[in-house]
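SEQUENCE-TO-STRUCTURE ENTRY
===========================
Question of interest: how does this chain fold, as expressed in backbone structure tokens?
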Amino acid sequence: MPESPDTQVMVNQAAVEIADVAASNGVIHAIDQVIVPIELMDAAKSKAPAAPSTPKPALDKPGNSDKLPQ
């Protein structure tokens, strides 16, 4: 495909920043954002957001406080 300076190749909503980069197993193209399949986006949008949680510190467990350096 002939390219000119004002030509920008797009893949979905991502722009190809660097094309034809040689890799050990083929050729890759560097893009400016992550491409997520539409099916996954639809599934993610349909799920309710998870409630934020804070992990309980290990020191709250019985017997762990004596493991601290004195």
